[in-house]
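User: For my dataset I need records formatted as: sequence, then structure tokens, nothing else. Please produce one.
Assistant:
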Amino acid sequence: MKLSDYIVEVLKDNGVTTVFGYQGGAITHFVDSIYKVEGIKYISNYHEQASAFAAEGYARVSGNIGVCTATSGPGATNLITGIGSAFFDSIPCLYITGQVNTYEYKRSNDIRQEGFQETDIVSIIKPITKFAVMVTDAKDIRFYLEKALYISRSGRTGPVLLDLPMDIQRAEIDPEELISFYESEEYRLIINDKVYLKDVNELIELIKNSERPMILAGGGIRLANASKNIEKLIEITGIPVACTLMGIDCINHNHACYVGYMGSYGNRYSNLAVANCDLLIVLGSRLTSRQTSSIADSFAREAKIVHVDIDKNELNIKVKEFLSIICDLNLFISELNNSLLKFNYKFDFTAWIDKINNYKARYPSYETHKDTNVINPNEFMNKISEMLNPNSIISLDIGQNQIWASQSLKLKKNQRLLNAGGMGPMGFGLPAAIGAWYARPNYKIVAITGDGGIQMNIQELQTIVCEKIPIKIIIMNNNALGMIRHFQELYFESNYYGTIEGYSVPNFVKISEAYGIKSFKISNESGMDELKEKLNDNESYVIEVELKNITYVIPKLGIGKPIEDQEPLLDRKELKENMIIDMYKCK
């Protein structure tokens, strides 16, 4: 059996239905093998970075591993940003790169290159993968493939890479004679599948003694497939839930206990709730400075913090934690729910919920815009929520568009929101939406991007045309790189180099027409009716939303401020009225 054929069969047996990639001389054997197998499809993107993002989108939505392939040299190096994105956001992806024949590969590290397009991709990407290896012996393929798949999906999930020389890809093997990783001494359980009842009981006691508890739900909820269990937890306890950027879609936003998105650019009411709680249960969040602010000792400073995460390296390192628990989130929350139901605990946090609802009413994510000739981005996002099909997946790019959507979209139970967090790569939104469609072709897919982000991977409009993928692409166009422009306004005397000056935007409607995709432009409230009509049909559209050149994301947290003190700053008397605990005294 040809080795590349064997790899495809293993991927199919592991439930992989789609492989994203871009052709090249060193990967042709593997791509040819994909075409010969029923039930698994090769999708040719128009840039390897887009292939990597598409695989990530597929993995996020399907719950299975995303697979991406590229040729040697520039093909492999074009994957790096996507690999980094999967690594920082803990997304299980397998990257398979082609490599020059083993007999052409450089014989010494003192040689820069021997074979054409030869590049040591394994050494380059090792810091941003869980496992990476070049396979130099065909007999090792089963071992390394099984190891890669296992490591990618175990413990804190993440990307892995196999580099395959051309002569290894085309080698003839006998699958019966191959050594299995699962039969080796190296194989061991990485995941912590033990839940210690003492941890569960201690947390229950903390909840019983709390008046103002909060749950902070991070991206780990989705990664652990724990969305149903966290919903059950809040039904049992009535504890309000705030979400990090990566955790926004793990809770139905119509639930009475949902308290919005918290963080540097989070909802003001959400930040106030977290700041004033007396118990903070952190589930699957790294607690970066975008949650804690740059002054970590100000974060939830009068609360007992309980942190549950599968990665022990993320526990008790940024803030002082009362209880740190290393465990798979789904297992832990399930055991917590079982214990709560077993003893039939009753909780009443009505007064606390009323206080949070007061915050919500006082500081909504947007104010209704009186001028109907101007698009208010946050209000626009909220209106999109009302139009979206209940089974929708929204893929966001990076920039102001991402924050407007994260602040003001109201997600229903079955809807998903794809946010790239740790790497924050512009150009993510469109290719990730393509990957999401291949994971859930029965869902409505919407990509929301900015005029900067769409230009990073605009070539993927051709993938949409070629594959007939019904995606709605909403471009929030302010003719600027708005996030950095605002930064320049604050700290660089409004010198808008590279964000307005020296930066320009093409005619997106004409570009869409050149690709063969229908398009239209919205510049005021009158265009919303057409958007509602088109948003849920079965065709692709590029929808350009015209904004003012100078746009803002508010509220935002300034440097050296606690999370409850976002800009534009509240009057000190008003802020004090909102605080149940003492005001933080900046040093």
